[in-house]
Write a structure and sequence with these properties.
The structure is a homodimer of 112-residue chains. Helices cover 58% and strands 14% of the residues of chain A. With 112 residues, chain A is of the alpha+beta class. The first copy, chain A, has a single domain, classed as Winged helix-like DNA-binding domain superfamily/Winged helix DNA-binding domain (Arc Repressor Mutant, subunit A). The first copy, chain A, has a three-stranded antiparallel sheet with strand order 1-3-2. In chain A, a hairpin with a 5-residue loop joins strand 2 and strand 3. In chain A, helix 2 crosses helix 5. The two termini of chain A are 32 Å apart. At the A-B interface, helix 1, helix 2, helix 3 and helix 5 of A face helix 1, helix 2, helix 3 and helix 5 of B. Chain B binds a DNA duplex (30 and 30 nucleotides) through helix 1, helix 4 and strand 3.
DNA sequence: ATATTATATATCGACCATCTATATATGTCA
DNA sequence: TGACATATATAGATGGTCGATATATAATAT
């Protein structure tokens, strides 16, 4: 099933930062990793990712360096910053609160 | 914590339809019920709700009737339609898939 | 050789849902 | 009478995602 873009809004940044908290990655790799990890539920578009990475960098949440890959291609590798880790922690709390509240409403009526 | 509007996007319609699947409600009542059920996590704005209700009605997911409340005030009561129930079921599946995928990514790295 | 596909980054305009601000009107309470 | 809660409504601003498009190289197929 294709996930409505409305649902994606707001969580994409958190997901990207979470990946970068695990290890340095380049853009294309993030798209593939998200696709794989979510069992193809997510298919983040390049047109969404690259502007997002630029805004995360501008905000100081990630830093980047260009480097040549083994195959000779140029890639732009992103890393999360300390500031980014703090922001990520906040976003994870927010996600937890939000998804919990949605489920509360959906379960609700019963034991309120 | 105030929930980022990006996160809300896409799930508000589902939440409203879920409330209406329980019982007929008027707009203001929906806002209060969501606030209460979510332990004040959600505070849906009137400027979001009323246009949303109109579009849900236009799409045939809800129907409305105007009636005088006990206190003499005019209220617009909304009910979910059969079509709306079908749409709601789809949206709940989508939410389940989406939130599951987000958690998979956040848990990920470990057991992939 | 040549065409196609995958890799890799990037920008732009369109779309859509949310918010704030504003408007109107009535009921309640001080 | 004034303030606040109730109740619905619309308009404009904001912001995130998408599709389309562009560029360039590597790998694969014909």
């Amino acid at each position: 099933m294709k996930i409505d873009k409305g649902l994606m809004a707001g969580s994409t940044g958190m997901l990207i930062l979470h990946l970068l908290a695990e290890k340095e990655m380049y853009g294309y790799e993030m798209i593939e990793t998200l696709e794989k990890r979510s069992d193809s539920t997510f298919s983040l578009k390049a047109g969404t990712l690259y502007p997002l990475l630029h805004s995360l960098e501008k905000a100081g949440y990630v830093s980047s360096r260009e480097a040549e890959a083994e195959n000779g291609r140029m890639r732009k590798y992103y890393s999360i910053t300390d500031k980014g880790n703090g922001f990520l922690a906040d976003k994870k709390n927010e996600w937890s609160l939000f998804s919990g509240a949605v489920n509360k409403v959906l379960d609700g009526g019963a034991a309120v």
